[in-house]
Please model this.
Amino acid sequence: MPALSLDFKPDVKMILPQVQWTPEMYWQANDAGCFEDLRVELVGGLLISMTDNPPHTKRSILAERALSALFPSDRWFVAREINLDLQSWAPRPDVMVARGPLVPTYDDRRPTADDVVMVVEVADSTYWYDHSEKIPRYLKAGIPNCWIVHLAMKRIEVFTASQPDGWTIYGVGDSVPVEVDGAVVGEILVGDILG
Model:
């Protein structure tokens, strides 16, 4: 298993860290428009500000496009930066794939752990946080496939429920198998996202 480098400080900003937010508080504030101009998610009772820069945005869009090509919209919902309702927290992954088409499946609800088959986090300054906080939480919630697109290392790290204590690394020349319910539905070239 690759060693996790902790020789840098993550650039994760907490908003109002003195307040311990519950999911109910978060959803009420969100639905009231309090976060309209903010890109925040609820993790561990804290509001976390999300990264927003051109390299991060580009890779998120490329990952969404690559996954959309594998998951037909009449059966799947592939989207960027959609809040998930995972009971004890409300993350906003850079990209997620959920069962069921957007309409009518998600007309009046957010995707839950039972719906989501995959999340992608694009990591630049947030790698340590994504790796140590978010990925373990996703897996614990029951999301079976989690990717980190590591911009600095130019690789994709794949974490799965079947391998909770380890991960597989794919470099720029590799293809990443995309797996759902134990079956490979296709492959994505790392270079198509990181190139």
Remarks:
- Residues 39 and 52 are 8 Å apart (CA to CA).
- The longest helix spans residues 54-70.
